[in-house]
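Lecture notes, unit on protein representations.

Consider one protein chain, 211 amino acids long.
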Amino acid sequence: MLLPLLFTISLLFSSSAHASVLDFCVADPSLPNGPAGYPCKNPAKVTVDDFVYHALGIPGNTSNFIKAAFTPAFAPQFPGVNGLGISIGRFDIAVDGVLPLHTHPGASEILFVVEGTICAGFISSSANTVYFKTLYKGDAMVFPQGLLHFLFNSGQTLATAIASFTSPNPGAQVMDFALFANNLPSAIVEKTTFLDDAEVKKLKAVFGGTG
């Protein structure tokens, strides 16, 4: 008797859940973002342009000290992906350019090389095992959610790649910026990284940090 009752209750809950499913929830970036994403834009104001994004065809500006650029198509830039569990972006990496060790706490990533040669890899959290590979045009690599990973141009021409993510807002934290681009006192950085004072001061100067 108990099992049929539980089955009936589960069907009722399932039916009520499906009754509230929306076709989409286009982001309204004028409202605060939350754990479930942005609030939905008024459907009466949704247009086809909310589901189309053009900037991925435009090369990013690599004239910076890492010689690399990332063009995101996340919910703030591409409102139509809000609530769908997906997003996309473009990497442009000049010769000798690098995307330093970083993590996306909210998503796994798949990288697809469009042009050039990229060395890419990630580090496991369980055993600190490093998985890296030189990727060529047409190759793809996956980076599991939350794991530190990196990319750098290992060829002699500009490299371009497209990345897809399992979240409309995957988040990103770059290790070098987290350590050297803020006001964390140098003494603490030195204590927690085992770097000497001169190296920490040098890196803070490069990344714009103080302290």
